[in-house]
Design brief:
Two copies of one chain form a homodimer.
Chain A (H helix, E strand, L loop, with lengths): L5 H7 L16 E4 L9 H7 L9 E4 L10 E6 L7 H15 L4 E5 L3 H6 L2 E4 L1 H7 L18 H13 L2 E8 L1 H16 L5 E6 L17 H22 L3 E6 L6 H10 L3 E2 L2 H6 L4 H17 L5 E6 L7 H16 L1 H5 L3 H11 L2 H9 L2 H9 L14 H18 L9 E6 L1 H4 L5 H19 L5 E6 L9 E6 L4 E6 L2 E6 L9 H15 L15 H4 L4 H6 L5
Parallel strand pairs in A: 3-4, 3-6, 6-7, 7-12, 8-10, 8-11, 9-10
Antiparallel strand pairs in A: 1-2, 2-13, 4-5, 12-13, 14-15
Helix pairs in contact in A: 3-19, 8-9, 9-20, 11-17, 12-15, 14-16
Chain lengths: 552, 552
């Protein structure tokens, strides 16, 4: 047994809160809604999900604690780590035990791979207790294998049958839940008696909709990042000499950057969805940032905080085009490019791009040009995730300010520090919100299993209220699906939730960003607290609070 | 009034604990020790500090709460931010008010500059209350101006006289406290009735000795870094695919890296003092790191955590020589170098270095060569603090592993992520330890002022015990001084406390590092807690615990 910290010891004893519906255990009373449909492309979705399509939304009320026959269940962690994964499993375990003390839970190892390869471990009290309220996915590991092929489904079936497993819980993001739904349909259509239940996870916060109001881990990760951004803001405001450019995890959506902005009130926050909607150029983004720096400098504040979402470059139309051209260009001339040194590759690319892209390319810092031409993945593509956007923007803003200084439009000092926060928050121990929410999602998944459901996502709602008022139930995954073009084919997928430009969180940000830019209005959230007064420990994200009509 | 977070609101009410000696206020009973001396170079120190040398060590016991005549006091924050600075000022304020409710406290703005320029603000209840238990130095700002010249001392005198200030408290690191001592001597020798008291601050932890067992901020900063390193460790152990190379603040001493290693038990920690003592080459450091990576890979653990102190490169003898040669070389050929492009400078340097240094230079990654030749400060010197040591080592270890693979000595995967933690912790809200310690240091400084002392450092000891058992008193700064060569002249300075290779903290690390390297023994300290059980909130650093003979 590994040594554990004082905090882990104390936190292990925390009993996560549950919705009232689950207070008597996972044997619940079920309220069925009417038949459901899909968010779009209804006919196509229905054709793909013949047996699971149209299932009703379920809402749970407390049951009488009836016991059911003993059974075996498997659980899988899929995709990137998010705070609270262990609590989903602990909730599932406790929920299953409440149905029948002889129920057994198996954890498939290293993600979906474990299901396909039949690698699993039985989870017992000792393992579960050692992981209650902890961060990380190290209890059973995770993986990024996608469950998509019939071969995989058959292997999954065989491995489940071997261990007499009659239900699977897949904890993952939008893709993993889509695949859970496909697997559920496969099993049901083929009369294989294995239920499949999904649980919504992504720290990026992009798996949410009317029924799934939050994906777990988002709250904790944003609190860790906000703690750090607040600390850095306090440092900036004390030293008064640096602009900190901070890149934040969030590849396809800017929810994390937006939530951190609402928590800390930094001077600049770029929202990728706004950039895309307004078709902003890189030059326009740089101009905006430089204008804020200059405005603050005019007030003798040569310091500030700028937040940049990780995925930004992919939302800038001209950069998307440039990257696509570079990918084609370097692939088409692979043999010649192979023989060039790093500088020659840059010169070669610069000479062959379209006029428009050549201009964009020329505007980039030398280090970024170098990276775009040299750091390529095994398929020969630019590795967008490796682009140090925070350094690129810091350098470009500096260049812009020099030009403004020459024109007499700026007379401040501009020194920068850059940061990237991602791994710092993905495995933090869950906040009370995530500890409670995750435990409830897992316990509720046991209720869905007990109710005989398949193709459902565990849903816990009304989470801006105390847990006793949370609404537990199940949502047929098919009702969240639409068809999207992926790798040249139409596929059923859960629509990714991007930052909505007519949503309350974004609107609150826009209403305040000018004041936050010019003034120094930093709020210092501090570290996540687990033991203090409720108003400090039982927080809900600003995003969810605003989405539900609350004030922040 | 700015918006404050829920945590700030709740934390503002925290009443820091005080040593028993200060329980009845700052009018204490004084126990005098015998005459003191200096740690070395006694005669030279004595000659420089004619009037303040030899003062006794003072230990305080509770007084009877006598009031003294009203007076004005000034306070200065000097140097880099460290958690708890505001609490020193709050403690000083409360201590002064306990002596006489009409005592006034002025904060000099932006560090020693404010004293020289006469820029100050009176600190009242509203300002103090708004900053209790908060991080940052933004209450009055800080600065790095050194108080060294008679001109500055005279300006300080004039500005103090203008505001009828008869005592100054300087909160700073080793240099600032040395200068406080010089200023105290200047005032006393010239019969200027202004007392000067120092308070020991540095998050680096390098201002400590027999009498000053900790400099404030070190505890909090190490806890923030350890929280993040622990989170990253949990991520590494969940994803099992990255080696994280983490650089930690700490330019001249590796106390932070060592404390974080003791808290988290990472696989690799480089201690600069060991590198210097063993005259390790960069190649040897890389070989050691690669050997750990390979040993873990042999156990199928292609992931890990490596901690690297910020100042490492300056402790590697061959790199020190290389940098000195580069500085000379580029300065001697400034005109020619000016006209070269970045690559030409690298080629030029490579051709002109001594054979030994040329070999070292050639072993460095191209990006680092580029930086060493191109990023130079206004004096033409290499900017050591900008060297991305964590990336350099990650790249060099990767190169070494490729060679080992070719030789058949390694067959793992090696992917890296790099991080640098510094600004994340400097302005965190102080832990209970730092909140209590800082408040006590400030309150105790008021007692020293009340006792008529000058040239003393505020000393609070026995802090591994509950605060009621802490020992408060004053230490003549002269007794910590020795003479050191600085910029070509002998100067009195407080000896910097480096990691002692025969000290208990380092020995504990060495006794465990092989196990920590091969196994995955990460401990997850989690975020600083302010409200929980005492064993979670009232922690003492592992370093101090071990130094005082305790177990961790």
């Amino acid at each position: 047994m590994n040594k554990i910290s004082a905090l882990q010891k104390a936190r292990a004893a925390y009993a996560p809160k549950l919705p009232a519906a689950l207070a008597n255990g996972a044997a619940v009373t079920i309220n069925e809604g009417g038949a459901t449909t899909a968010v779009a492309d209804v006919e196509k979705v229905q054709a793909l999900f013949k047996t699971t399509f149209g299932s009703p939304v379920l809402t749970f009320a407390p049951g009488k604690g009836e016991k059911s026959a003993a059974r075996n269940v498997g659980v899988i962690l899929s995709g990137g780590q998010a705070p609270g994964g262990h609590n989903v499993i602990a909730g599932l375990y406790d929920g299953l035990k409440s149905l029948n003390a002889d129920n057994r839970l198996y954890g498939f190892l290293k993600g979906p791979d474990g299901l396909v390869k039949g690698e699993m471990v039985e989870l017992d009290d000792a393992i579960i207790d050692a992981h209650r309220n902890t961060g990380g996915f190290d209890m059973i590991g995770s993986g990024r294998t996608k469950l998509e092929t019939e071969e995989q489904f058959e292997a999954a079936r065989a491995n489940c049958e071997k261990a007499a497993i009659s239900a699977l819980v897949i904890i993952g993001g939008d893709d993993s839940n889509t695949n859970a739904c496909v697997l559920a349909e496969y099993f049901k259509a083929n009369n294989i008696p294995i239920q499949v239940i999904g649980c919504p996870k992504t720290i990026d916060g992009d798996l949410k909709n009317e029924w799934i109001e939050a994906s777990f881990g988002f709250d904790t990760a944003c609190r860790v990042y906000s703690e750090l951004i607040g600390n850095i803001g306090r440092d900036a405001n004390s030293a008064k000499k640096y602009w900190h450019f901070i890149k934040l995890m969030g590849r396809s959506a800017s929810h994390i950057a937006l939530e951190c902005a609402l928590q800390v009130q930094p001077n600049i926050t770029i929202i990728s969805e706004e950039v895309a909607a307004k078709k902003q150029t890189l030059g326009e983004i740089v101009d905006y940032m430089a204008s804020v720096v200059a405005a603050r400098a005019a007030n003798k504040m040569n310091f500030g905080i700028a937040l940049i979402p990780e995925g930004l470059v992919e939302f800038i139309p001209e950069i998307k085009v440039l990257i696509a051209e570079l990918n084609d260009l370097l692939a088409a001339n692979a043999d010649a490019v192979e023989k060039m040194d790093k500088n020659e590759k840059v010169a070669f690319a610069a000479g062959k791009l379209s006029a428009e892209s050549a201009k964009v390319f020329a505007s980039l810092p030398a280090g970024i040009q170098m990276q775009l031409c040299n750091d390529r993945d095994p398929h020969g593509n630019v590795q967008v995730s490796l682009i140090e956007t925070e350094k690129m923007l810091a350098e470009m803003v500096g260049t812009k300010l020099k030009a403004m200084k020459a024109e007499g439009n700026y007379s401040g000092k501009f020194s920068t520090q850059t940061h990237f926060f991602g791994y710092e928050g993905r495995c933090a121990a869950p906040s009370n919100y995530d500890a409670d929410y995750c435990y409830s999602l897992g316990f509720n998944a046991a209720a869905l299993i007990g109710a005989g459901c398949t193709g459902y996502m565990s849903s816990v709602r009304n989470t801006i209220k105390p847990a006793s008022e949370w609404i537990a139930g199940g949502i047929p995954i098919t009702m969240m699906l639409n068809m999207e073009r992926r790798h040249g084919a139409d596929k059923p997928v859960i629509r990714k939730a991007l930052v909505e430009l007519d949503g309350a969180p974004y609107k609150h940000f826009v209403a305040n960003r000018e004041a936050w830019a010019i003034e120094t209005s930093y709020v210092y959230p501090g570290p996540i607290q687990y033991f203090g007064p409720s108003e400090v420990c039982d927080l809900v994200t600003k995003t969810l609070t605003l989405e539900k009509g609350g004030n922040i």
